[in-house]
Amino acid sequence: MSVQLVWFKRDLRIDDHRPLAEASRRGPVLPLYVIEPEYWREPDTSRRQQDFIAECLADLHHGLERLGQGLLLECGEMIEVLDRLHQRWRFEAIHAHEETGNDWTFRRDVAVRAWCKRAGIAFHEYPQFGVVRALSGRDGWSRQWEAFMAEPAAPLPGTLTRLLETQLRSDPFSAAPAHGQLDCAGRQRGGIQAGSEVLNSFLDCRAVVYRGGISSPLSAETAGSRLSPHIAYGSLSLRRIVQRTRERRAHARSVDDKRLAGSLNHFDQRLHWHCHFIQKLEQRPDIEFQNVHRGFDGMREDDFKPELFQAWSQGRTGYPLVDACMRFLTHHGWLNFRMRAMLMSFAAYHLWLHWREPALHLARLFTDYEPGIHYNQCQMQSGTTGINTLRIYNPVKQARDQDPDTVFVRRWIPELAKVPAQRCFEPWKLGLAEREQCGAGDYPQPVVDHQEAARQARMRIGEYRRQPGFRAEAQEVQRRLGSRRRQPSKGKRREAVAQSRLF
Ligand SMILES: Cc1cc2nc3c(=O)[nH]c(=O)nc-3n(C[C@H](O)[C@H](O)[C@H](O)COP(=O)(O)OP(=O)(O)OC[C@H]3O[C@@H](n4cnc5c(N)ncnc54)[C@H](O)[C@@H]3O)c2cc1C
Fold first, then answer.
1. pTM for the complete prediction?
2. Average pLDDT, the chain
């Protein structure tokens, strides 16, 4: 009996699961998930991620049970677990999806490959996204992405031979506490069932307001697809999402529903970005720790001010929209793209914090933490990629644009609930007596002057960009990692730079 081990990682589903499909063609399948305590001690991990995963594992277990063999859940160091299981099952091969994770999972995967070699066991890895291994440049990448998404989904195995009885504990992560322990009362529910409900509700009803609805933190909560944690932990297949989106878009076009078709175009583009960003980390794993453009090395490293970091991470910078977003994120484990960008931009430009600590804090707060997207976005919003336009978000302008009726800020900053609307985004303009009268006395004064801080940041970054050799390295970054979408003309680029001041 040649047992095939299927190792589940960030692919917690049975639908469109190629390792499961391939393994089940070859012999009896032992489906395995390993909780690795050492991983959960990493500074980018948190309990909210574990809680989401635990819900996914429960659904995965039930799905596998229905096929005939439930999920085997182990806790321990991966190589020890493999040694132990192999003694009992003498498996012939391990099947898993490729993972582009953080440095820790990269090293763990290297160790697993070496163990397989020593033990004479085949290790079959299959791509689950449009991310391509061992790629040196980006030419032709989009075509490969399209080809992957157009392939038929992997078939569901008919039945699985029962090898052993398995049961999931109600609190599977109790022996592996995560680094981040902040409560997350408003977290999205995990699992295959929850994922497909979110996808259906998006494609059937919510998608129509996607374009235009995802910038404000108020409307984005329902206008956004909210699929990010399901994509991050694989409770839904990205290929299925792409295919269903395109079917829906074709239908919208056939009935001349331009609004819905336009929104789905926007959404489709983001599904492409998902892999575009992860591909960058796949090619440059050092992006987790190092500036994408090394010409920025030394720019912020020695300027870290813990008191500013603390004010930012606790939602007490004195800038209402920044603080409201941080508090909302802490509560929900999710925030829309524009406000994530603003939080990061505020930390990097206004507070002049090196991106690494803020990135780790956000990673812990995001239920949908995906290293490839995350570190690239954090660096983009900090100006350290060398190939993107600087976007320094003005926290007062953003508040006026995205929360014109002051609803979001008042909801998340109760200290400002009674402040008159015209002062709600700039409470520092209230007189002392007025401040006390409105009950805003406990709300902090701004930790920096945002206009002066932004001016200083732009100037300092400009100095680094003018260094000799900067442009040559930027071109190399663009060649290796940059998008091959048509570049704007020189005139349009100038316009974009001018517009960037208005963010
Ligand atoms: C500083 C910063 C950090 C981020 N960290 C993460 C992260 O750890 N995990 C994560 O999934 N997203 C991250 N994003 C991207 C984006 O903000 C989230 O994907 C999005 O807000 C999730 O909400 P949604 O599922 O409703 O997204 P939708 O707008 O409905 O997008 C659908 C899917 O497309 C992908 N996507 C959307 N926007 C982007 C983008 N700009 N770049 C790459 N992929 C994208 C995601 O998988 C998302 O679920 C980050 C953005 C910023 C600015």
1. 0.96
2. 95
